[in-house]
Each structure stands twice: as structure tokens, then as C-alpha cells.
Amino acid sequence: MRLRSCFVLGITILGFLFIVAAVSAQTPTPEWITFYGSNCTVNGAPMPAGAAVIAYDPSGVLCGKFTVVQAGTYGFMPCYLDDPNTPVDEGIRPGDTVQFKIDGMDAARFTVPVSIQNGDRFEVNLVAAPPPVAIPEPSTLILLGGSLAALTGYLGMRRRR
Description:
Blueprint: H1 2-23, E1 32-37, E2 41-42, E3 45-46, E4 52-56, E5 62-67, E6 74-80, E7 97-102, E8 105-111, E9 121-123, E10 127-128, H2 138-160
Parallel strand pairs: 1-9, 2-10
Antiparallel strand pairs: 1-6, 2-3, 4-5, 4-7, 7-8
């Protein structure tokens, strides 16, 4: 019984990994444009070596990826264009807005010109920062504190009875 459960769990994990790999795979096409950046930052500091720069088309299709070698710069990163001869969306089209991310954080958006040629190069300097942490407003803290005080008073009165 235990061996069967382990087998089912193993198959489930392998299936999940296969789906993740298929969804996040980049599909090369015969045409691409190239992106690079010479002044890219994360939290105000130069983008670190080893960071992953990822580019997505408006549908969320991965069209370019690059691992940073020199801090603060990336590229030349090919970003594949959609092949009009296939029914599958493999990448960007002229006029699309490309979404760039650095290690999963939003970094920039770039609208591809309508008239492009295979191999065109575009400089896009990326700026990324983690999303701000929500800080409760004073009124929220007052309501929470008041509620806790009322609850404490009620429980104290109940114990005295």
C-alpha cells in the first residue's frame, strides 16, 4: 500500500514538472529582434550577475530569456517573433508590448515598432523593485486595538461572574 502511494506521488510530481517545463519553454522561430541594456538596476543597485531577465509577449508567451553575466547589463537577448505560418503563438508581433521581468519582478515594458526587420536591436534599460509592503493605516490599527480592548474587557467581566 505504501509503495503504491509513493509511486502515485512520484508520477504526479513528474507530470507537474513536465507541465511547468512545457509552459515555460521558449520556442525559437526563424525571426527575432534583439534586446540589450547597459544600465539596469534592482532596488537601486546594479542588476546582479546571475539574475534572470525574461521577456513575455502580451499573451504571456515567453519570447526571450537571458542570464546576466556582468552586473548592470544584459544582452544581446533574442526575442522571437511569432511565426505567421503556424497556428501557435510563439512570440511577439510588430506593435506588441513586451513585458520584461528580472527574477520575477516587473522591470519594464517596451512597445515594438510596427515596422521592424529580423535582427533589429533595441536598448531597454530595466528597473526592478519588489512590490511595496502594505503598511496598515493608523485608523486600521485603532480599530484593531479597540476591538482587542473590548474583547479583553468582555472576557474579564465574564470571569468575574
